[in-house]
Amino acid sequence: MRERWTQTRRSAGYLLVSLVTAVATLVALPLLVWPSKARAWAHWHRRRAGRLLGVPVPARPTPPHGEPRDGWEIRTAPATRRGLLWLPTHLLTGLPFGLAALLCLGNVFTGLWAMALWWALPAEAIPTLQGEIPVDDWATALTAAPLQVVVLAALFWWGGPPLARAHARICLRVLSLSEAQQLTQRVEVLTRTRAGALDSHAAELRRIERDLHDGVQARLVATAIRLGVARDALDEAPEGVTELMREAHEGIEEAMTELRNVLRTAYPPILADRGLDGALSALAAGCGVPTRVHVEDLGKVPAAVEAVAYFVVAEALTNTAKHGRATRAEVRVRQTGTGLSLQITDDGVGGADETLGTGLAGIRRRVLALDGDVLITSPQGGPTMIEVEVPCG
Q1: Are 48 and 168 in contact (CB under 8 A)?
Q2: Which of 118, 204, 236, 304 is least surrounded, with the fewest CB atoms within 10 Å of its CB?
C-alpha cells in the first residue's frame, strides 16, 4: 500500500509538472528551437522520465576538452533533431495528460472543500460538483461531495500512474538514441578513454624508465666498478676468491645489459631525449643498410604512438639488414587526418612472411594494440613495403 501511494504521489507530481512545462514549451517555443536550448530542455525531460521509470539516463554530453564547439555541434546533430522533435511531441502529450490529472485531482480537492466549508461561503461563491450540482445544503455536501471525492480519487489511484508512465515512455522513446547511435557514441567514448589510457600508460613507462635508469642501473654500475677494483686488488689472492669475484663482476655486467634491453623495450630513452624524428634518424644511422628518413612536421603525437612507431621502424630495419639483402632502405613518416602514417621500403629480395618469426608478427601485434592497421607487401624478388597507420585520437 505504501509503495502504491508513493507511485500515485510521484505520478501526480510528474503529470502536473508536465502540464506546466508543456505550457512553457508553447510560450517559449521561439527560444527552445535554438539547438543548445532544445538539447538542454530535452535532456531535462529525459532525466525526469528516467527517474519516474527507474531507468538510468546518461549524463548530458559536453564537448571533449580541446574540441571546437562548432565541430561538436555538427557531430551531435542527431541529438538536436531529437530535441526539436520532442517539442511538438510534448505539446501533444503533456497538455492532455497533465490536464486530465489536473481535472481529476482538482475536482477531488473541490469535493473535499465543498463538503467541509460550503456553509461558510457567501451565496455567490457556492461550489458546484461536476459543474452542475450546487452544494447549498448538508444533504448534498454529505452525499454528492464524498461520492465525487471517492470516484475521482479511485480513478486517479488506478489511472494516474499508468498515464504518467506512458508519458515517460514516450519521452524516452523520442529522445533515446537508436542502437546504431548508441554504438557510435560508445565507440567515441571508448576512443577518448583509450587515448587517455594510452597517455597514462606512456607516462608510467617514462617513470619506470627514469627510475630504472637513475636508480637501479646507477647502483648496478657503482657495484660493478667496486667489484672490478676489488678483483684487481685481489690478483694475488687465492684462485678461488678471484674466480668468485670475476663471476660476480660478470654477472653484474650481464644484469646491466639485460636492464638496458628492458629500458629500450619499455620506452626508448632516445624518444624522450631527441623526439621521434631524432630517434628514427639514430636508427637509420645504426642500420647496416643505407637508409633515408623523411619525417614531416608531426605536431603533437601521443607518447604511446611514438613508441610504437619507433619499434615498428626498428624491427623493420633489423629485418632488412638481416634477411632482406637490400642495398638501400627508406622510411617516411607523416601525419594524416586520423593518425600517424609510416612507410618503410627496401630494395631487397622480398619474400617476408609473418609466420616465419621474422619480427613482422610483433609489428602487427604492437600496431593492433592501438587499433592501427598494417599492410605488408613483399613479393618474391622484392621490393618490400610495410605501411602502418596508428590512430592519434
Answers
A1: yes
A2: 236
How far apart CA 284 and CA 277 sit, in angstroms, is 11
Distance separating alpha carbons of residues 114 and 129, to the nearest angstrom: 8
**In the chain, where are the structural domains located?**
2-176, 194-266, 274-391
For 344, phi then psi, to 5°, come to -120, 120
What is the pTM (predicted TM-score) of this model? 0.49
Q: How far apart are CA 172 and CA 97, in angstroms?
A: 16
Q: What span, in angstroms and rounded, lies between the C-alpha atoms of 297 and 367? A: 21
Q: What is the maximal distance between C-alpha atoms in the chain?
A: 130
* CA 160 to the chain's CA centroid: 39
Q: For all residues of the chain together, what is the average pLDDT?
A: 78
CATH topology of domain 274-391: Heat Shock Protein 90 (3.30.565)
Q: Three cell numbers at 351?
A: 619474400
Instruction: Tell me the sheet residues that pair with 291.
Output: 329
Buried b (16+ CB within 10 A) or exposed e, 369-379: ebebebebebe
User: What are 26-71's pLDDT values in tens digits?
Assistant: 998 888 888 878 888 988 999 999 899 888 777 666 555 445 444 4
Tell me the pLDDT tens digit for each residue of 356-392: 766 788 888 888 877 788 888 888 888 899 999 988 7
Residue 343 in 3-state DSSP?
Answer: strand
The answer to whether 266 and 205 have CB atoms below 8 angstroms apart is yes
Between the CA of residue 379 and those of 84, 221, 324, what are the distances in Å?
Answer: 57, 47, 12
pLDDT of residue 71: 45
Give the helix/strand (H/E) hosting 294: strand 291-295
* Rounded CA separation 82/168 (Å): 15
pLDDT, tens digit, for every residue of 216-262?
A: 666 677 777 766 766 676 666 566 566 666 666 677 777 677 666 66
Helical packing angle, 35-53 and 2-27, nearest 10°: 170
Helix (H, G, I), strand (E, B) or coil at 390: strand
